[in-house]
Structures are given as structure tokens and as C-alpha cells.
User: Fold this.
Amino acid sequence: MNRSGKCVFISHCLLAQVAVAKGLAKFSPAIVKPVIQFCLDNDINIFQMPCPEIHCEAGGVERDLHGKVWYENNGLRKTSQQIAKDQTNYMSNLISAGTSILAIIGVEFSPACAPTYLNKGRTIIKDKGIYIEELQQELKLRGLQIPFIGINQRWHKKMKKQLDELLI
Ligand code: SF4
Assistant:
């Protein structure tokens, strides 16, 4: 059987909601099914990136919910830089081997993994998570262009549309 050359890199918690901060797993108990089902249905390989907030010293598995400013002051940038370097190496090797990375799938409103939107108080603002900033910087340094999409489980229709567009 031929191996599929299509893949996505996804935020860790899309396959493991146990990774999110306390009280945040409101829509899925374990995996985010629409994303994973989409990959299953279309023979897309899944690369699960490490969770920056778990790996950050001030974070961890049992962490409470914090915002971008708190994480900026508590080491998430350094942790994110290291993960971003490692993941970019991985992506670069895959691309050199002929693999097609359809997208990097992050999680909107995460202070680490949001590609486009964050919360500021009760307002939604356009901003990126710290890990996504570092990953985009690292990809730019290597001259790699990979699309980013942001998942939000409340925006079900939008999530489906974003995933379907990866196949066009
Ligand atoms: S930091 Fe990223 S991978 Fe970790 S729980 Fe938040 S969105 Fe998921």
C-alpha cells in the first residue's frame, strides 16, 4: 500500500483534551472529533505537537487558566522557542522527503496556540498565541510557508469550512 504524503501538524490538545487547563474541556472529553475524523476520512497523517503550556515550568498538567501576559512573564516564550525549533526541524525534514504539510492547526483563544484570536477581558481581539508567534518566526527564518488555521469548537461551521478548504 502506498503511504499518504499528506499531513497536518496539530496542537496537542486536539488529540488529548486532558492537556487543556482546568475547566476548559467543555466541548469534547478527549479528542476533538471533527478534526480527527477529517484526517481519517482523507488519509491525512497527524503530527501532534507538544503542549507548550504543559512543558512550561510555570504551567504543567494541573495548571489553572492564565492569559498571554501572565505566560509572557512566566517562561512560556522560552519554552515555545525550543518547541518551535524542534517542530520546524521536523517539518523541514518531512518537506525535504516529499511530504505535503497541508496546515498547522492551532486553537483559537489559547495564549500559546491561537493563530488569530485571543480574549482580552470579555473582548475578542486579533492576536496570536506565544507559541504560534515563535513557530511562524522559525518557519520564516527557514523560508518555509505553511498555512495556519485556528480551531474553535464553538464555531462548528467555520471549523468544518476551514478543514474542507485544506483539500482544495
Ligand atoms: S497550550 Fe496549546 S496544546 Fe496546550 S492545551 Fe493550550 S491550545 Fe492545547
